[in-house]
Every structure is written in C-alpha cells, then in structure tokens.
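Complex 399.
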Amino acid sequence: MEAVKIKEGIYWVGAIDWNIRNFHGYSTIRGTTYNSYLVMDEKNVLFDTVKHGFEEEMLTRIKSVIEPERIDYLVINHIEPDHAGGFLRIVKIIKPEKIFLTSNAKAGLLAYFHEKELPFEEVKTGNEVKIGKRTIKFFETPMIHWPDSMISYLPEEKLLISQDAFGAHYATSKRFDDEVDYCELIQECTKYYANIVLPYSPQVNKLLKTVKEMNLEIEMICPDHGVIWRRNIGEIVSLYEKWSSYQADPKVLIIYDTMWKSTEKMAYAILEGVIKEGIEAKICKLSVSDITEVMAEVMLSKGIIIGSPTLNNGLLPTVAGFTAYMKGLRPRGKIGASFGSYGWSGEAVKILNEVLKDMQAEIVHEGIRCKYNPDKEVLDKCKELGKTVAKKVKETFGL
Ligand code: FEO
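Predicted structure with MU-OXO-diiron bound:
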C-alpha cells in the first residue's frame, strides 16, 4: 500500500473501503474510498484524515514517501467521521504544528474528541497560507456537506481539494476519472448527489456561480471519495449545475408497493398510459428495490407518481419509509400524482398528495383511490392518469 503521486510533490494517501455495503443507509454496492492528500513543500501538509479503522492504511501510504512526523500542517476540510474518525490517532502520531479548519469544524471536533489543547488555527473564506512555493486558499462551504465544511485551493497547482463535493462511493485501484469505467463512475456520482448532496442544492448552485465568477483555474479536482477529476472536469461541473438547479429528464417514474396486487395492477396501468404518450417510463416496486437507486431515479425523472395501499389508516411501511427518506432529500421541480387501493378507510392517496405538496411538486391529478380490486373502469382511469402526467412532462420540455 503506497502513496499515489498525482502531481510533482503531491500524493493521494487515502484508504480504499472495498467491502462497505451500507454507508449510514446508503447502499454502497461498489464500496468507497476515504481520500487524503499529502502536499510536500517547505511545509508538508496533509489534507483530511480517514474513517476510524483505516488509519494504518493511510499511515502506510504516507510512510512510503515521508515519515508521518515530518508533516507540519493538517487541514481538516470536513469533520464527518468518514474523514475525521481517524483524526485523533493521526494527530497524535504526526503532532502537527497547526491544524487549519473552520470555526464550526473546531467546535465539531471538540464535541467529538474533547481534546482542547490541540494547535487549532481557525480559517475563513479568503484566508490563505503560504507553505513554500505553494499557497493554500480556503473557502468555507457550509452545508456542503455539513456546517463545518470548507474546500482548499492550491492556485500554483490549479488543484481544488473539494471534500465531499464531486465525490462518489466508488472503490477502485485507479485514482483518476480517465482510468475507470466512465459509465460506472457517472452512475455512482449520480447516486451520490441524489442521496447525499441533493438537500444542499441551493448552496451548491451558489458556490458554482461564485467559483465561475472568480475565474479559478482548475486542472484537478480532488474529492474525499472516489476518483480525482482531471479529464472530465467540465462534465462533472455541468452535471452539478444541472442537478443543483433541479433539472431532470423528460421521463416518468412510478414508485409503489402493494399488499394484494391491487395497487400493483394500478401501477402497471399507469405505466401503460405513460408509455402511450411516448416518453420514457420506469417502475419501482419498493419492497424489491434499493432505495439508494430509486432516489437517483427520482432526481433524474421530471414526473413522479407514487402509489400505496392504505394500511391501518396510513401507508404501507415500505412506502412510508421511502417517502420520509425522499422528503428529507428535498427533490424539487417535479410533476406528480398518486394512487392506491384500500379496503375501508383509504387515506393513502391523501397522505401521498401531502408528500408531493411538501416536495413542492406540481400535482396534476387529484389521484385515484380504488376499493379492493381495480376493474376495467378504474384501470382505464389509471391509464389516463399516466397520460396526464406524461403530457404535462412533455409540455414542460416542449415535446
Ligand atoms: Fe464523506 Fe460528509 O462525509
């Protein structure tokens, strides 16, 4: 396990978590990486640490180029435990002269580790530190991803260390975007944005505009997860511009679950209606779907139709769990409708319409409730609902 040189005097010294499959509820089917970067200059600087349990891997990589005790400065761009879980152990070994971080990061690390006597040096947007022939410029990025977050820019290297932003949960032995399967990488970036970054889209959008106005020259973006961007920087930045402004594709996603197949019959009739309108449609049954993948589809789809039978005056647990998850991620700009079967009380459609309202979706149909088993008349109405949503999606895109 060695450091990987990414530029003259600059190394990736992180860790690869090949086997993680659940990252606080996010299904990481391709594992992940915890990236750290070492810049060797008159002052040697380490950017971020790793998740607890991966400190040895990181130290082994550092030792392949430098004794860890020769590191002078530590920069903490983000304190979430996947990056700062190993903070204290690493600090005790390298004994840095200074630890650069935001005031929120300092407060957070004190709350996590309760070690007050460390050489913390608070920085704000615009502060810079000369480390020899290179400079580090700091930019606070609160809520991308946590209140403590910041990014670090090395102008002489045209290199941006972006912590969670532009990352992907993607374990690979390769370190650069042009060395991996690009479709896989974009899939993982999409899931990552939809399941982690999406709630902070207004902040991301503002940051992208600020960076553009500043005309920062960037030849390399080094995130804290996944691979380093050097060939496709324009494309990942464009995707972040698209996702952070809630632009979706002209397609409709039908999300549902079912008890005795009645809601399922309705879902398939709706699907038929959408398909008849000639736009792309997908259907996800929640009891057999990975919600991380479903959330990526939600982000990419302009039309969202949700279905659940009524169970004990509420939603089926799989639908209730998913809608709570989805609401928290705050997708916006959707065209929506809902449906569901019931036996006697039938509250599910009303609850699902409330979910859509919370998401600020444009609801284009009052929803379809069906007592017990749908007959032809109900299924025809379901087809019409699918057509109504699809037509509105087409109209939005001028199709
Ligand atoms: Fe990768 Fe917000 O931590």
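Residues 376-396 form the longest helix (21 residues).
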